[in-house]
Amino acid sequence: MSGVGVEPSSRIGVTLDLILKTLIASSEFASLEPKNWEAIAHLIPGTSAVQCARRYEELLSGGGGVALQHLTRTMTNAGLNTSTSVTSLCESETSRRSASNSRPNSSKSKGTKDDKEKSNTIKDGQFRKDLSQKGPIMVIHVCDEAKNLKKDFQCPRDLLVQEMKYFAEYLSTDAQRWEEVDISVHCDVQIFDWLMKYVKRGSKEFPNEPKLEANNVVSILISSDFLKMDSLVLECIKFCHKNMSDIVATPCNMGCINDRLLTRISDLFTHNEADDVRDRKDKFKSKLFSKMIEKLFDPDVVNADSPEQATTLFRCSICKRHLINKMKTLVKCMPSRLTIDRTGQMTFSHIPDPTFDVNDYILELKGQLKTWRDVYWRLWGTVNCFTCARCGDVFPLTEFGHCSYHPETARYETEPGGVTSCVGVYPCCHQKSVRFDPTFINKGCRVKDHIVNLPSGGDGEKATKSPMQSVFDDLLLRRDVICVPYQRLCDFR
Ligand SMILES: [Zn+2]
Ligand SMILES: [Zn+2]
Ligand SMILES: [Zn+2]
């Protein structure tokens, strides 16, 4: 979600952030509802109310621990300093305008600078020689505001451009241009140090790849995504998938992971893996499950966790059930909706409620169930169904415990003349019973679990689980949140 909206590299973006940061610091503004974004947008020409509101949210959720807070590129141009500031949370569709403005003789020669500054990362002269074939050496000034540190890093241009694609936009292969470019990065020094080791992995100086850890992967993910280090981003995402419980236990800020990265991470999780994440403070689990809910409603996604999609979800205005189109004629409605189709089969026809709004429904579930995890499981149980081997009903998983029965069999009086009556009574509930009831509607005064006959998925434990078996196992594991309490069907008509 970040990245859209105000172009952050522009002066407008910087001004906007300044104003918004002032507003964030004001408790008066925080408690103001609704906030007048129109008026705020008016203060900053070129922005819209929506952009301001969105950026405000981003800044709020970004918090402190963002690794790469700003990436500044300073172009020195005959005494005139133009500085463009880019926040790390945004896509870097950065303006290229300054590259051509800044031509003339400006920056100091790299050689002398290297000698003067003792903060060189490259100590091995041999290594530098090896890399000298890879274009001129670039100096990157890293300012770490949080720790009040400054450090210079060096890297051959070709390697830098190849590994950190972000710089490819700036460091043209035109030899004259790079000489004028002075790169400043506002970033955690330790993180940038890690990134440089990654860039130079396999060299004599750094023969091994630096290690991702639970306490650095989020910072590295965000920085590498910003710097467009694609293979490293992928490594971080895989690491997140494998080690999420450990990661959320560290004091990292998961709020700075943008929506695009969040989608990529959550795509690796099965719903069971997501459920197994231990996340006491709920730093990530809810985000994971909201993505899974999105996936249920995405017609373009093949979802191994859910045989059915929620895209056609509707509410029946008669029985108030939530169903998908596929279940429309299979799951029973109120008895009054029972019809016989052309083949003589009994079918039900639910009537979709035209006022049903799926977003309202999801919010309603959220209010009722409290967590996105529980909302996910309830929705999953609503759209998937089984057929009961005992009563023959097709039932959504949410109604797993709704197989109705009478604990005692009906008693039919013997009429005078030895003929047994067609109408009997269930002793358990005194309900009348018709011996040959074609509707099968008046079933049971008690409920128990439906019986699901699963196709035998081969012998031995090594046989892979059938999708139905997985769905059934998942249902049994979480029936407390998936299933809804039984309510007797009663026709209002
Ligand atoms: Zn219905
Ligand atoms: Zn009964
Ligand atoms: Zn049943």
Distance between the termini: 48 Å
The total beta strand count reads 16
Strands of the biggest beta sheet: in what spatial order?
Answer: 2-1-5-3-4
Mean pLDDT comes to: 77
Helix content estimate: 25-40%
Specify the structural class. Answer: alpha+beta
Number of helices: 20
Biggest beta-sheet profile: 5 strands, mixed
Residue windows where pLDDT falls under 50 for at least 5 positions:
1-15, 63-129
β-sheet strand percentage: 5-15%
| Global outline | elongated
Radius of gyration, rounded?
Answer: 32 Å
Question: Which molecules are bound in this entry?
Answer: zinc ion
Biased composition (Low complexity): 97-109
Organism: Lymnaea stagnalis
InterPro entries: SANBR-like, SANBR_BTB, SANT/Myb, SKP1/BTB/POZ_sf
Protein name: SANT and BTB domain-containing protein
